[in-house]
Design a protein that fits this description.
This protein has 316 residues and is α+β, with helices and mostly antiparallel strands. The chain folds into two domains: 23-31 and 41-88 and 271-315, no CATH class; 92-258, Rossmann fold (3-Layer(aba) Sandwich). 29% of the residues lie in helices and 33% in strands. A hairpin with a 2-residue loop joins strand 3 and strand 4 (77-79). Helix 6 (207-217) runs parallel beside helix 7. The longest helix is centred in the first third of the chain and has 15 residues, at 2-16. The protein is globular and about 50 Å long. The two termini are 30 Å apart. Residues 1-44 and 312-316 have low confidence and may be disordered.
Length: 316
């Protein structure tokens, strides 16, 4: 009888100390524990980590932003009580550059490669930063270099990979986001720099699925439109949506590598990060907006939302 009781207590202890798994957009932070009869219960509350950018009426970065200058609207919840508020320019970067090498952009592939080389060589990298490059064409996404592209990227490598054919844009975006998600860390800012004309012709994933995966990875997408037409096209609309929903920017390759580089670097130095307790919701998707509280001329840019299972705000 005594042995049976001991086995029962051991089983309860093992079950009670197993921690739950949380999706990337919400981080889990221990806030306390309770001990009774040798059994430890871990109480964990999830929190949202949001990278955003603030500009004034002239589209200049706001350097003196205070946490009482804005409120986050998470679905119907108004968030003013932030667990933390800080600048993001001191955190490390994990960057994935996605290069469209399909048939429709082959005439501009050389310019694309030159711009990527300039971005990689001129970026003020820190020792802990990572940069990877992928190209996509036909039905596949091809790895050019992983994490160490500052030293291993080369134009010859791009030209040696398959080119032309169809455009699996949405599949490539999902792969890039999953790569970032797999090695996600709280103190790393995740960025996708996409060079494409925005036209997808063969992906198994939909635009909605691609955007959802990006939002789950918390990556900002800087979509560089390398299409021929100067007029808005369906591809332009798609690139703008991808950039806007992720909190990134839409750019044109005709702006030149210097301006593309400057846009990303300006964001890097002006980004803010807030964290707050995950509010309850009836659906898995939380929409996000940021609104000014005092100066109504302030404008804010962030991802449009994130996914978290309804009812999972607190795990025991």
């Amino acid at each position: 009888m005594l042995n049976r009781v001991r086995r029962l207590v051991l089983s309860v202890t093992l079950v009670a100390t197993v921690t739950s798994h949380n999706l990337v957009p919400a981080q889990s932070t221990p806030i306390g524990s309770h001990e009774s009869s040798g059994v430890t219960y871990h109480h964990r509350v999830s929190e949202v980590r949001l990278v955003f950018f603030a500009t004034d009426e002239r589209n200049h970065s706001v350097n003196d932003l205070q946490k009482n200058d804005f409120a986050v609207i998470d679905d119907d919840a108004i968030i003013r009580d932030f667990r933390s508020f800080s600048r993001a320019d001191l955190i490390n970067l994990d960057v994935v550059v996605l290069m469209d090498s399909s048939q429709s952009v082959l005439p501009r592939l050389a310019q694309e490669i030159t711009d990527v080389q300039q971005l990689i060589s001129q970026w003020p990298w820190r020792s802990g930063d990572k940069v990877s490059v992928l190209s996509f064409s036909g039905i596949q996404t091809h790895l050019v270099c992983s994490e160490d592209c500052r030293s291993s990227f080369s134009a010859d490598r791009i030209y040696s990979l398959p080119k032309g054919g169809a455009t699996p844009l949405f599949d490539a975006l999902k792969k890039a986001a999953n790569i970032l998600n797999a090695r996600a860390q709280p103190d790393v800012w995740r960025v996708i720099v996409l060079f494409s004309d925005g036209d997808d012709t063969i992906s198994s994933a939909s635009l909605k699925e691609a955007v959802g995966t990006i939002q789950t990875s918390e990556a900002e997408v800087y979509a560089v439109d390398n299409g021929i037409s100067e007029r808005p096209s369906n591809g332009t609309t798609i690139l703008k949506k991808i950039a806007t929903d992720s909190g990134g920017r839409y750019l044109r390759i005709n702006d030149g590598a210097v301006n593309i580089f400057k846009s990303v670097i300006d964001d890097l130095h002006s980004a803010r990060v807030v964290t707050y307790a995950l509010p309850p919701a009836d659906t898995d998707f939380h929409s996000i907006r940021i609104l000014p509280t005092h100066n109504l001329k302030l404008q804010f840019r962030c991802r449009s939302g994130y996914y978290y299972p309804a009812g999972s705000a607190i795990a025991y």
